[in-house]
Write a structure and sequence with these properties.
- Helix 7 (190-202) links the parallel strand 9 and strand 10.
- This protein has helices at 2-16, 83-91, 107-112, 128-136, 149-152, 157-172, 190-202, 222-236, 245-249, 253-265, 293-297, 315-324, 335-343, 359-374, 380-395, and strands at residues 21-29, 36-44, 47-52, 61-63, 68-71, 73-75, 94-104, 121-127, 178-181, 207-210, 240-242, 270-274, 279-283, 304-305, 327-331, 348-349, 416-419, 440-445, 448-452, 455-456.
- It has 15 helices and 20 strands.
- The protein folds into two domains: 2-71 and 412-456, Urease, subunit C, domain 1; 73-404, TIM Barrel.
- It is an alpha/beta fold.
Length: 471
């Protein structure tokens, strides 16, 4: 009898330690399978190994009753990658933040600078902008100025060969994608773009494109800009992803999205992303603000705001800032348009995160709080697809590791979030952009909590650098 009791006790102890971590009793939601049910999640060595309707026991348990448990969000478009920015992202439910528009010049160096020091996963594209600036002999900077060589000169055949060589090197070193900012490099020819697209196709890489034109004047307008991206995919086979289409397209965005969905319906691999704010942000020295910007964007000086002072610009302050440079906020879109593009059945959510704009800290909580809970523009499951599954699927042909992210399923990485759908909300504003979101009770990266009971855990760095296979 005593032996039996001892055996049962040992069995119970072994069972209790079967999982490193158990998330108990939350509303489990998986955007890939449609799972939406009360479940317990068992995690071992950073992997989801059990999703059960019956209680589980483990070395550690997190209580998720009254909360949603789902895959962590994947931000395809995050520029700010300093420690504070990663903290904002974790508090906003993001477990992977990627710089895929501007990208990097040196993929290895970019990863080395962050290795072992981030709470969340990170990754980068090989960037056409920094590569072009390097080849053209510009001084290193985030974006080229309007008078820079990268913005104002067409590449010679020799320069184009150098650009292609460096792009290919970045792809060989595991860049997740190829990034383009064509409005910042207006003298990059369509042939140059196609040559780089051909390289991307060879490496199964998607091209993340800030479109070339704004405005509706013929011939260089928004329609031509979307056509360039779609035709590049049709010609080369490389997937296209149009970044912040509502920021580039403004009130014309619904028509542009019809062009994107039309391409999809005809079998082309083209996608588009949006962010949930009426204003954008960029460098005032860039080619975007070359003469004629008011007519192209249908805005004026008073629609521009200095994030350092909160003041709207005048012709005089615009001219002064244009000389010294700096980021400015551009108020361009009505809220009605933002609601429309968020509700669109095919758009992906990405932040375009930069310090000084509320989107850096609050994008994903804003989707859940304002557009799901308050406005009911989206169902919760639709929002999760836009924030986790679809971003992962955008990259998984190039980077197979993404097949294990963006899902709540057995075998997937335990990049998970636990949030209260009744209280989750963004707190960052244009007046005070550095305010973290609330409502995320737990955020796990590879099974390690980086947010616990709504508070960021300091000196916790389970984030990994994500790459495509390195050659």
């Amino acid at each position: 009898m005593i032996i039996i009791l001892i055996a049962l006790t040992l069995a119970g102890l072994l069972q209790a330690e079967e999982y490193d971590l158990v998330i108990r009793g939350g509303r489990a939601m998986d955007p890939e399978t449609g799972l939406d049910a009360f479940r317990h999640i068992g995690i071992r060595k950073g992997i989801i190994v059990e999703i059960s309707a019956k209680p589980l026991q483990g070395k550690r348990t997190l209580d998720a009753h009254g909360h949603v448990v789902t895959a962590g969000f994947i931000d395809l478009h995050q520029h700010a990658h300093e420690p504070l920015d990663y903290q904002f992202k974790a508090m906003d439910g993001v477990t992977t933040a990627l710089e895929l528009e501007v990208g990097a010049l040196d993929v290895d160096l970019w990863h080395k600078q962050r290795a072992g020091e981030t709470p969340i996963h990170h990754g980068v594209s090989i960037g056409h902008i920094p590569v072009r600036m390097s080849v053209m002999g510009d001084r290193p900077s985030f974006l080229p100025g309007a008078k820079s060589k990268a913005a104002g000169q067409t590449a010679t055949p020799k320069q184009l060969t150098s650009i292609k060589t460096r792009i290919e090197r970045g792809l060989q070193r595991g860049a997740l994608a190829v990034g383009f900012g064509l409005q910042y490099t207006p003298q990059a020819s369509q042939l140059e773009v196609l040559e780089i697209y051909r390289l991307a196709a060879r490496y199964r890489a998607s091209c993340h494109v800030h479109m070339r034109f704004k405005g509706l004047e013929v011939p260089n307008n928004l329609y031509a800009a979307v056509q360039e991206v779609i035709s590049a995919t049709a010609i080369t086979g490389a997937p296209s992803h149009i970044v912040h289409i509502q920021s580039s397209g403004n009130r014309t965005t619904p028509v542009l999205l019809k062009m994107v969905t039309g391409a999809q319906q005809h079998g082309l691999d083209v996608s588009a992303e949006i962010y949930p704010y009426t204003a954008g942000m960029t460098d005032i020295r860039s080619a975007i603000f070359d003469p004629g910007w008011e007519e192209r964007a249908k805005i004026t000086y008073n629609d521009l705001q200095d994030p350092r002072t909160g003041k709207r610009l005048t012709p005089e302050t615009f001219a002064a800032l244009r000389k010294t440079g700096g980021m400015i906020i551009a108020h361009t879109n009505p809220e009605s348009l933002i609601r429309q593009v968020i509700a669109h059945p095919k758009t992906i959510v990405a932040s375009d995160g930069l310090r000084g704009h509320p989107r850096n800290a609050g994008t994903f909580a804003r989707i859940l709080g304002k557009y799901v809970r308050e406005n009911t523009d989206l169902t919760l499951m639709q929002a999760l697809r836009k924030c986790s599954l679809w971003p992962a699927q955008r990259l998984e042909d190039r980077a197979p590791i993404m097949k294990l992210k963006g899902r709540l399923k057995i075998g997937a990485h335990a990049d998970l979030i636990v949030f209260d759908p009744k209280t989750v909300r963004d707190r960052s504003t244009f007046a005070n952009a550095g305010q973290p979101s609330t409502g995320f009770r737990f955020v796990l990266v590879q099974g390690t909590p980086v947010v616990s009971e709504g508070k960021l855990l300091e000196n916790t760095f389970p984030g990994q650098g994500l790459r495509a296979p390195v050659r």
